[in-house]
């Protein structure tokens, strides 16, 4: 009798589980409807702000950052990559993807890592507007990789997406002309199914688009008052190794330790009254909400695609994976011996130690209003994209990535307006950073409210909150087959990606 009762109880539990799963898929399957499950009744804006502030992703996957007890170390500054050769119209570089070992900790063993032209991360590649650039990409890893130029407006044949594999031991050459304005871009691998692991191990570098004719009044002394800040979070095992498979989360891998330019617990000695910081969110999945320790303001002067038309003072800077921003911090009122820190919640990102200061010669930031930044009046969407799912079950418009399928076809030089909808799931949803290759776009609306995109400038990656509708507008200038995808790298690897053809 007891066995029979136990069997009946177990049967009831199985029936309830099957019913719950079936109800979930029934309620969430139609992507454009407003059906809402119990978990998705949460207020999306409050939920997403919590996510942004703590770096959480939703779905109960939070991994909090921990304050490192490592001794503070000088912030590492990536080297500028020296050209192989150049003339007035052309410049040639070599970029090597390689294995190495890196000393993150003051005591103990080194960490096995990947890097470009070095052991971890990569150099800064200078790309001067108007010049033709040739890059010889060399794969010295023991696995295939690609070299994706994130934010660069180039033909798809040299974009470095998942179709353009460079096999282990091989090399390929790419050539393109730089035709966009000054901006902070970056490069990283993009092999299907392996992007997250390769970035986690260290493959990422910066590209600075420069313009010799620029007269913008901003700090430009690299490594002195013009500083890159690459934000990454990593979980180091007891033996100091980065064992991706042990940390991997299909909804986005978060780490416990903050690493800035490959430095744990860094400081920077300030010797100017004003410094320029170029932030890059190079994390696999963590969102950042950056503030100053004393609550003071800083001035944002640039976004993903370059300078904004209207510099704006902020006390908080939100960055989702793949996004960039440039800010100015004023130290003119700080005395030698004082300090100021960048914070993520209660965690120190970077501590500034004020030394004897020099004048930067920059008083008022002068930014131009470009034609591309003009406000548009047409916000009717030409296409709609629905981001949905969790873990390995992620999709765009009900489909997972298929390299043999073209999802969108657009005309070259035609203005495109897209609506991106982040559909909630039964767990409430999570922020999806939406990235498009080969283009820079303007943000027009968020949930039907017009956005002054002159303050954010051009973008190639945008954080879309749970339940939010975002409208963007762009013109595809280059031909070929490009990717669009969630920039949570595990989601990208799991198929939250589509293909668009420009012809």
Note down, in words, how this protein is organized.
The protein is mainly beta. Helix content is 11%, strand content 39%. It is built from 5 helices and 33 strands. The chain has a 7-stranded mixed β-sheet, with no helix packed on it. Strand 3 and strand 4 (111-116) form a beta hairpin. It starts with a helix and ends with a strand. Residues 14-51 and 370-375 have low confidence and may be disordered.
Portion in helices: 10-25%
What distance separates the N and C termini?
72 Å
How are strands sequenced across the largest beta sheet? Answer: 13-12-11-15-20-17-18
Task: Determine the oligomeric state from the structure.
Answer: single chain
Mean pLDDT: 88
Overall shape: it is globular
Question: What is the topology?
Answer:
Layout lengths: L1 H27 L15 H11 L18 E2 L10 E2 L3 E13 L8 E6 L7 E5 L3 E8 L8 E3 L20 E7 L5 E6 L6 H7 L3 E6 L15 E9 L9 H4 L9 E4 L2 E2 L1 E7 L1 E8 L6 E5 L5 E6 L2 E9 L2 E3 L4 E7 L8 E6 L2 E12 L24 E8 L2 E4 L11 E3 L4 E8 L9 E5 L4 E6 L2 E2 L10 E4 L4 E7 L4 E7 L2 H5 L3 E6 L1
Provide a quick synopsis of the model.
This protein is mainly β and 503 residues long. Helix content is 11%, strand content 39%. Strands 13-12-11-15-20-17-18 form a seven-stranded mixed beta sheet, with no helix packed on it.
Key features of this structure:
503 residues, 7-stranded mixed beta sheet, globular
